[in-house]
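User: Here's a structure from my thesis project, written as structure tokens. My advisor, Dr. K., wants to see whether a designed sequence matches the one we expressed. Can you design one independently, without my sequence as a hint?
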């Protein structure tokens, strides 16, 4: 069991490796924070799971982590759009730590778009949820919003972190709704902003940007999440984030053949160890 004297401890939780895009923003903004990562590869993906399953599963895993690995954790980040939209309020009732969730960056995208023509790229589950429709109606009412749900892009992001070569044609197939004219997207050349509403998708930022071109700004929630973590650690909890960073640990929930190929990626993101929870 790990104990820290000065560096504030943050847990980043996701079903897969998408949360690494979030943890990178936190590490950049708060280099003195101690980050650990927990991903539920046994339950991956979360996109089509029920609310009941997600609440029971995430509560158990986070509880196990706090009991067995680091009871001194000060902030928990739910780096998964699906879990954030469905079970965040209940998780906040069950744990004493502040819990930061993911909100698709629809509001800043609508505010910054010059053409008022934006895209929302997410998993199919996120696209169809009332929560997402409410975000669009509340914050992008004056915009034309093209939505597309992709499971395949999640698979491609996971494969990239395992060191596999990602064919541009496979990424392009996931972006066709934004690239080609259709009744839902009559003017694809007008689109100037794309919201990456799954934490996996920023891991493919360079591939997506190359296909959409320099005229399309890609937006995600990573920086906003990092700022929220900083608010809790510094403003609310009054913790010292200036101490030297400790090497983090990453934990998975099932030993299988996908783990070892991920080790270099976790090392590159600042996680010195990768082990079973």
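Assistant: Designed independently from the structure alone:
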């Amino acid at each position: 069991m790990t104990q820290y004297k000065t560096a504030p401890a943050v847990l980043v939780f996701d079903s897969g490796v998408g949360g690494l895009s979030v943890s990178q923003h936190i590490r950049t903004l708060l280099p003195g924070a101690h980050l650990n990562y927990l991903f539920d590869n046994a339950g991956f993906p979360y996109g089509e799971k029920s609310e009941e399953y997600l609440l029971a599963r995430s509560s158990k895993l986070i509880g196990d982590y706090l009991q067995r690995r680091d009871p001194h954790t000060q902030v928990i980040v739910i780096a998964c759009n699906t879990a954030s939209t469905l079970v965040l309020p209940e998780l906040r009732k069950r744990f004493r730590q502040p819990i930061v969730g993911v909100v698709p960056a629809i509001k800043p995208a609508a505010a910054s778009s010059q053409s008022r023509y934006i895209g929302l790229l997410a998993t199919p589950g996120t696209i169809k949820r009332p929560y997402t429709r409410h975000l669009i109606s509340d914050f992008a009412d004056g915009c034309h919003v093209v939505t597309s749900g992709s499971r395949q892009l999640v698979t491609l992001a996971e494969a990239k972190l395992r060191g596999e070569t990602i064919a541009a044609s496979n990424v392009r197939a996931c972006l066709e709704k934004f690239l080609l004219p259709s009744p839902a997207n009559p003017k694809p050349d007008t689109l100037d902003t794309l919201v990456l509403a799954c934490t996996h998708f920023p891991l493919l930022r360079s591939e997506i940007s190359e296909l959409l071109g320099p005229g399309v700004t890609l937006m995600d929630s990573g920086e906003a999440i990092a700022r929220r973590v900083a608010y809790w650690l510094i403003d609310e909890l009054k913790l010292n984030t200036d101490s030297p960073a400790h090497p983090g640990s990453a934990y998975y929930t099932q030993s299988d053949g996908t783990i070892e190929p991920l080790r270099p990626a976790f090392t590159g993101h600042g996680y010195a160890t990768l082990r079973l929870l």
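When you compare it with your expressed construct, this may help: The chain has two domains: 9-102+222-276, 106-219.
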